[in-house]
C-alpha cells in the first residue's frame, strides 16, 4: 500500500483550522483536531517545506494560544525572521515574541537578525524588529543593541521614533546603567510635537527616574518644560486627532501627571513649580465622563504625593469626595482607596466627607464596604469617638460575618486610643462583644480583661453589667469568657453591692448561688468551647474562697470534672481538687485576686486615668523598681526598657549596630519609601531596618522638623504565605510623646508583592536619645504570632 506524500498536499488554512477547533463538541474532539494538525506541521518542518512554513507557524501560534505545546516551532520562527519577505518576517517576529523569552538560550540566535533589520530601509521591517526587541530582549541583547535603538530614537520618522523609545524602556528596565546611552536623546524627545513620541518619551523618563537616582535629580530641571506641555494640552482647542470625549489627549495628560508626581516628591522647588498647573487641571477638567475622572484621579495622587500647598490638598480631597457620590462603583472604590492612602496627609479635609464615607458602609458591594470601614477607623479621633463608635456599632450589627472580626479589632484599638473615660470604654466594648457574637478574635478577649483589671473603680460595675447579659444568653462565647473571668475575680464585689449604681437602671440583687449557677451552666453546656469552659472552671475555683457558702458545691463540681474526657479540664479539676484536700491551707492565697494585668496595647492619650505615655525610665540601681507597674498606669506593650529583649533586627549600613533586635515583623506606614530630610539641619537621615526576621522586614524612614520626628514605617513579607490581622504597637519613654496613625491595611501580601504603611510621630522636646519598644501581633498561615523588640540604635540625626 502506498501512503500519500503529505509534504506535497496543501495545508489547511488558519481560518479553516480555527473553524474546525471551534466546531469540536468535546475537549477530546478538540485535542484530536489539534494533535492531527500538529503532527502534519511537524512533518512539514522536518521536510524543510519553505512554501508553507509561514502558514504552518501561524497555525502553531494559534494552537499555542489555546495552551497546547508549540516549542518545536521555535527554530522555524528564526528561519522566517531571516527571510527577505515582509509577510514571513511578520509571522517570524510574532512567533519569537510568543514562543521565546530571555530564559531560553535559543533567543540569542535572533540577535544578528535583529541588528540587520534595525538597519533595514523599510520602516515596517524596522518596526517589527523594535517590537520584538522590546518584548524579549535580555540584558545581553540590551547591551549589544542599545546603540542601534538610541540611533533610531534620533530618526526623523515618528513611527520609528516612538517604537524605539518604547524599546528603550525595556532596555532601561533590564539594564539600568544604560541610562547614560539614552539620556541626551530623551531631552530632545520632550520637545517633539508628535503626541505619540511625547507619550513614549514620558514613559521612558518615568522608567529612568524609578531605576536611577541620578536620573531623577537630572530630570527635575525639566519640570518647567513638562508644565508647559501640560498647560498647552488643557488650554488647546478641539483636535479631532487627539480628542477623547471632549478632552485633549487624556493618555498624554495622565503620563505627564504621573511623571510630575515622581519629580515633585520630596522636592519643594519642583513642587512649587507645578502647583498652579495642578490647580488648573483640577478645576478645568470635566468629571462627567470616565476620561475626565481618570485625569482627576492622577491629579489627586500627584497633589497628595508632592509638597503641595494646603489649599491644593483640600481641593484634591474634595475631588475624591465628589467621586464618592458617583453612581459608578469602580469610581467610588477608587475614591475610598485613595482617601485611605492620603488621610494622614490632611485628615481635617477628609473629615468633611465623613458622612458620605459612613454612607458607603451601607453599599451592597463588599469591596466598597471594606474600604469604607477601614477609612472610617482612620478618621476616628478624640472629637468624634462617640459618634463614630455608634456608627460602627450599627455597621457591626448588620455587616457580613467576614467583616465582624476586623471591625471588632479596629473598634477596640480606636477606643483604646481615644476613649474619653474607662467606664465609657468598658460599656462600649461590652456592646461590641454583644453585637459581634462569636466573630471576635482571642486577643480582644484578653485585652478587654486587661482593661477591666486595670480599672479598679469599675470592678463591681463591670461584673454587674456582664452578669445582666450572660444570665439569659451564654451562646456568645467571647462575651461569656470575659464575663466568667470578671465574675470569678470580682463577683463578691457585685454580690456585696460595692459598685456605683448606673443612673436610671434598676438595682439588681444577686446571691452567691445565682452566680455559681451561671458559671456551672456555662461549664456544663455542651456547646461551650473548651476555652470558655476553662474560663468557667477557673472562675468557680476563684469563688471558692470569695463565696464560703458555695465552697462545698464548688468542690463537688471539681471532683466531678476530675474524670472529664477533655484532658485540659480534667487536669485543672484534679489540681483544684487537691487544693481542697491536701493544700486547703494555702488555697486562699493561691486563688486570691489577680494583680493588675498589663494590657497588650498602647496607652490611651485621652483616658482620664492615664498618667504617662508608656514605660518607666531606667533605674539600674533598683531592680524592684524597674519591674514595678503602678496599678493605674496602662503600661500596655512593653514593660520596661531595663528588661532587655533579644532581637535580631539590624539598622541601615550608615548606622553602626549597637544591640541586636528581636522582633517578629511588621510595621506600617504611608509613603515610606522616601528618604526624609531633617529640616532643622538639612542632614539626610538614613533609613533603619527595624526588623528583618523570618521573611518579615520592617524599614523605618525619617523626617524631622525641630523636635517633631515623623517615622514612616514600611512592612514587607518575603514568605509564600500572606500575613493577616497585622497589629503594630510602639512605646517610648515618658519624656517623649508618641502618636501612632492607623495603617493603610492589616494584610501583608506574600512574596514581597505588597506592603503595609504606617506613620509614627514622636515629640522629643528635650532632644533625648530615642529609644522605642515595639510589639507585633499577626496571623501567619492561620497561626497566631507575636513578638516584641527594643530599638535603641536610631540614627543620631533623629534626636540631635
UniProtKB/TrEMBL annotation:
<dbReference type="InterPro" id="IPR016024">
    <property type="entry name" value="ARM-type_fold"/>
</dbReference>
<dbReference type="GO" id="GO:0030121">
    <property type="term" value="C:AP-1 adaptor complex"/>
</dbReference>
<keyword id="KW-0653">Protein transport</keyword>
<keyword id="KW-0813">Transport</keyword>
<dbReference type="Pfam" id="PF02883">
    <property type="entry name" value="Alpha_adaptinC2"/>
</dbReference>
<dbReference type="InterPro" id="IPR002553">
    <property type="entry name" value="Clathrin/coatomer_adapt-like_N"/>
</dbReference>
<keyword id="KW-0472">Membrane</keyword>
<dbReference type="GO" id="GO:0016192">
    <property type="term" value="P:vesicle-mediated transport"/>
</dbReference>
<protein>
    <recommendedName>
        <fullName>AP-1 complex subunit gamma</fullName>
    </recommendedName>
</protein>
<dbReference type="InterPro" id="IPR008153">
    <property type="entry name" value="GAE_dom"/>
</dbReference>
<dbReference type="Pfam" id="PF01602">
    <property type="entry name" value="Adaptin_N"/>
</dbReference>
<feature type="domain" description="GAE">
    <location>
        <begin position="683"/>
        <end position="795"/>
    </location>
</feature>
<dbReference type="InterPro" id="IPR050840">
    <property type="entry name" value="Adaptor_Complx_Large_Subunit"/>
</dbReference>
<dbReference type="InterPro" id="IPR011989">
    <property type="entry name" value="ARM-like"/>
</dbReference>
<keyword id="KW-0968">Cytoplasmic vesicle</keyword>
<dbReference type="InterPro" id="IPR008152">
    <property type="entry name" value="Clathrin_a/b/g-adaptin_app_Ig"/>
</dbReference>
<dbReference type="GO" id="GO:0006886">
    <property type="term" value="P:intracellular protein transport"/>
</dbReference>
<dbReference type="InterPro" id="IPR013041">
    <property type="entry name" value="Clathrin_app_Ig-like_sf"/>
</dbReference>
<comment type="similarity">
    <text>Belongs to the adaptor complexes large subunit family.</text>
</comment>
<dbReference type="InterPro" id="IPR017107">
    <property type="entry name" value="AP1_complex_gsu"/>
</dbReference>
<keyword id="KW-0333">Golgi apparatus</keyword>
Amino acid at each position: 500500500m502506498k501512503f500519500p506524500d503529505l509534504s506535497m498536499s496543501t495545508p489547511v488554512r488558519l481560518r479553516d483550522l480555527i473553524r474546525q477547533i471551534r466546531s469540536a463538541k468535546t475537549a477530546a474532539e478538540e485535542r484530536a483536531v489539534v494533535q492531527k494538525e500538529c503532527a502534519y506541521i511537524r512533518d512539514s518542518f522536518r521536510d524543510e517545506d519553505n512554501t508553507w512554513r509561514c502558514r504552518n507557524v501561524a497555525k502553531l501560534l494559534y494552537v499555542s494560544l489555546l495552551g497546547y505545546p508549540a516549542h518545536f516551532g521555535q527554530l522555524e520562527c528564526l528561519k522566517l525572521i531571516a527571510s527577505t519577505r515582509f509577510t514571513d518576517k511578520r509571522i517570524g517576529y510574532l512567533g519569537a515574541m510568543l514562543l521565546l523569552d530571555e530564559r531560553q538560550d535559543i533567543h540569542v540566535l535572533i540577535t544578528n537578525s535583529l541588528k540587520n533589520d534595525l538597519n533595514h530601509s523599510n520602516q515596517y521591517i524596522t518596526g517589527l524588529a523594535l517590537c520584538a526587541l522590546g518584548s524579549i530582549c535580555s540584558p545581553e541583547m540590551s547591551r549589544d543593541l542599545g546603540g542601534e535603538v538610541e540611533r533610531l530614537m534620533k530618526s526623523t520618522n515618528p513611527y520609528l521614533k516612538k517604537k524605539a523609545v518604547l524599546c528603550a524602556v525595556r532596555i532601561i528596565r533590564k539594564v539600568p546603567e544604560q541610562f547614560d546611552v539614552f539620556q541626551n536623546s530623551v531631552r530632545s524627545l520632550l520637545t517633539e510635537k508628535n503626541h505619540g513620541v511625547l507619550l513614549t518619551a514620558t514613559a521612558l523618563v518615568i522608567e529612568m527616574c524609578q531605576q536611577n537616582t541620578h536620573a531623577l535629580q537630572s530630570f527635575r530641571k525639566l519640570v518647567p518644560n513638562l508644565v508647559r506641555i501640560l498647560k498647552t494640552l488643557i488650554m488647546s482647542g478641539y483636535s479631532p486627532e487627539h480628542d477623547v470625549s471632549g478632552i485633549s489627549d487624556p493618555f498624554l495628560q495622565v503620563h505627564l501627571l504621573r511623571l510630575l508626581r515622581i519629580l515633585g516628591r520630596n522636592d519643594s522647588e519642583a513642587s512649587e513649580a507645578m502647583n498652579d498647573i495642578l490647580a488648573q487641571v483640577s478645576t478645568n477638567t470635566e468629571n462627567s465622563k470616565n476620561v475626565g475622572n481618570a485625569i482627576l484621579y492622577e491629579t489627586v495622587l500627584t497633589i497628595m504625593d508632592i509638597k503641595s500647598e494646603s489649599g491644593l490638598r483640600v481641593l484634591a480631597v474634595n475631588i475624591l469626595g465628589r467621586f464618592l457620590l458617583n453612581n459608578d462603583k469602580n469610581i467610588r472604590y477608587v475614591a475610598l482607596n485613595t482617601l485611605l492612602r492620603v488621610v494622614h496627609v490632611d485628615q481635617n479635609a477628609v473629615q468633611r466627607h465623613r458622612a458620605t464615607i459612613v454612607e458607603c458602609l451601607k453599599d451592597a458591594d463588599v469591596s466598597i464596604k471594606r474600604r469604607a470601614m477601614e477609612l472610617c477607623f482612620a478618621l476616628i479621633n478624640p472629637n468624634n469617638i462617640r459618634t463614630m463608635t455608634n456608627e460602627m456599632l450599627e455597621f457591626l450589627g448588620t455587616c457580613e460575618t467576614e467583616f465582624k472580626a476586623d471591625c471588632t479589632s479596629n473598634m477596640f484599638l480606636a477606643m483604646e486610643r481615644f476613649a474619653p473615660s474607662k467606664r465609657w470604654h468598658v460599656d462600649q466594648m461590652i456592646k461590641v462583644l454583644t453585637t459581634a457574637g462569636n466573630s471576635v478574635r482571642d486577643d480582644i478577649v484578653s485585652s478587654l480583661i486587661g482593661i477591666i483589671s486595670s480599672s479598679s473603680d469599675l470592678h463591681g460595675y463591670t461584673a454587674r453589667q456582664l452578669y445582666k447579659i450572660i444570665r439569659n444568653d451564654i451562646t456568645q462565647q467571647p462575651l461569656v469568657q470575659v464575663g466568667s473571668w470578671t465574675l470569678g475575680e470580682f463577683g463578691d464585689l457585685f454580690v456585696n453591692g460595692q459598685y456605683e449604681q448606673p443612673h436610671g437602671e434598676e438595682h439588681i440583687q444577686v446571691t452567691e448561688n445565682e452566680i455559681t449557677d451561671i458559671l456551672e451552666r456555662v461549664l456544663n453546656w455542651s456547646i461551650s468551647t473548651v476555652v470558655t469552659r476553662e474560663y468557667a472552671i477557673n472562675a468557680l475555683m476563684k469563688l471558692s474562697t470569695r463565696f464560703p457558702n458555695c465552697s462545698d458545691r464548688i468542690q463537688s463540681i471539681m471532683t466531678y470534672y476530675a474524670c472529664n474526657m477533655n484532658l485540659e479540664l480534667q487536669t485543672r479539676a484534679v489540681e483544684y481538687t487537691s487544693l481542697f484536700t491536701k493544700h486547703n491551707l494555702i488555697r486562699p492565697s493561691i486563688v486570691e485576686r489577680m494583680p493588675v494585668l498589663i494590657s497588650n496595647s498602647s496607652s490611651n492619650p485621652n483616658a482620664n486615668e492615664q498618667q504617662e505615655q508608656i514605660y518607666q525610665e531606667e533605674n539600674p540601681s533598683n531592680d524592684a523598681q524597674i519591674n514595678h507597674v503602678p496599678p493605674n498606669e496602662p503600661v500596655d506593650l512593653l514593660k520596661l526598657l531595663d528588661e532587655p529583649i533579644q532581637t535580631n533586627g539590624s539598622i541601615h549600613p550608615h548606622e553602626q549596630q549597637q544591640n541586636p533586635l528581636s522582633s517578629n515583623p511588621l510595621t506600617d506606614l504611608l509613603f515610606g519609601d522616601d528618604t526624609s530630610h531633617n529640616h532643622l539641619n538639612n542632614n539626610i537621615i538614613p533609613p533603619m531596618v527595624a526588623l528583618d526576621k523570618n521573611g518579615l522586614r520592617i524599614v523605618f524612614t525619617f523626617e524631622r522638623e525641630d523636635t517633631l520626628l515623623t517615622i514612616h514605617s514600611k512592612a514587607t513579607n518575603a514568605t509564600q504565605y500572606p500575613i493577616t490581622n497585622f497589629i503594630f504597637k510602639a512605646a517610648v519613654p515618658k519624656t517623649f510623646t508618641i502618636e501612632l496613625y492607623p495603617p493603610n491595611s492589616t494584610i501583608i501580601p506574600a512574596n514581597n508583592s505588597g506592603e503595609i504603611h504606617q506613620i509614627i510621630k514622636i515629640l522629643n522636646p528635650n532632644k533625648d536619645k530615642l529609644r522605642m519598644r515595639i510589639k507585633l501581633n499577626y496571623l501567619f498561615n492561620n497561626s497566631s504570632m507575636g513578638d516584641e523588640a527594643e530599638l535603641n540604635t536610631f540614627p543620631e540625626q533623629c534626636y540631635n
